[in-house]
Amino acid sequence: MMKKMMKEQEEKQKADEIALEKSGEKAKQVKAVQDFLAAKKWTASQTPVGTFVKIDQAGAGAQVADGKFVTVKYNGKKVSNDSTFDANQFTVQLGVQPFIKGFEDGLRQFKQGGKGTIVIPGYLAYGKEGNGGVFKPYEPLYFDVEIVEVSDKEPAAPQMPTPQAHGPNDGHNH
């Protein structure tokens, strides 16, 4: 079921991308990101998918790859006004769980311990829908990232300490 949904989403994204290419909108979105990088004086490489990645530290651990569980700290910002819209840490299984195409593509350029910035043209971010109106259609985004862990297994959820009971049957003589 999930694979079918992902395949449908991917096909829709491809069709949208072809339409954008023909209209010249894709080139405009790429130029907007290139202009942003130039204004920041950042040097970034563009992946074959179209994501721009500025690597500050490549990392020396395991390579980020499909099927791996990647724990990443991030600070997500809008290119338009350089403002943070979200900062957090999460773990995702790359290539398995539906995710922002450009973010996923950018993560693949790092190894565990890596740090840098992933700059995403709008068509590789939330696309035409803008994530239900949270973002403008085709809004470019960027993420400062740190690859905390790359693993073959899903990390265990942090254990919450269990409260100690203090009642008549707690084993203490009162």
List the helices and strands and how they pair.
Blueprint: H1 2-23, H2 25-40, E1 45-46, E2 52-57, E3 69-78, E4 84-93, H3 101-107, E5 115-120, H4 130-133, E6 141-151
Antiparallel strand pairs: 1-2, 2-5, 3-4, 3-6, 5-6
Would you write up a description of this structure?
The chain is α+β, with helices and mostly antiparallel strands and 174 residues long. The chain has one domain (2-151): Chitinase A, domain 3 (Roll), CATH 3.10.50. The chain has helices spanning 2-23, 25-40, 101-107, 130-133, and strands at 45-46, 52-57, 69-78, 84-93, 115-120, 141-151. The chain has a 6-stranded antiparallel beta sheet with strand order 1-2-5-6-3-4. The longest helix is centred in the N-terminal third of the chain and has 22 residues, at 2-23. The termini are far apart. The mean pLDDT is 86.
Features:
six-stranded antiparallel beta sheet, alpha+beta, 174 residues, Chitinase A, domain 3, 26% strand, single chain, 4 helices
Distance between the termini: 57 Å
Major β-sheet annotation: 6 strands, antiparallel
Helix content: 25-40%
Number of domains: 1
What CATH calls the topology is Chitinase A, domain 3
Total number of strands: 6
Strand content: 25-35%
| Low-confidence parts | none
H and E order: HHEEEEHEHE
Mean pLDDT across every amino acid position: 86
User: In what order do the strands lie side by side in the largest sheet?
Assistant: 1-2-5-6-3-4
CATH architecture: Roll
SS content category: alpha+beta
Radius of gyration: 20 Å
Number of helices: 4
**What is the overall shape?**
globular
What is the CATH class designation? Alpha Beta
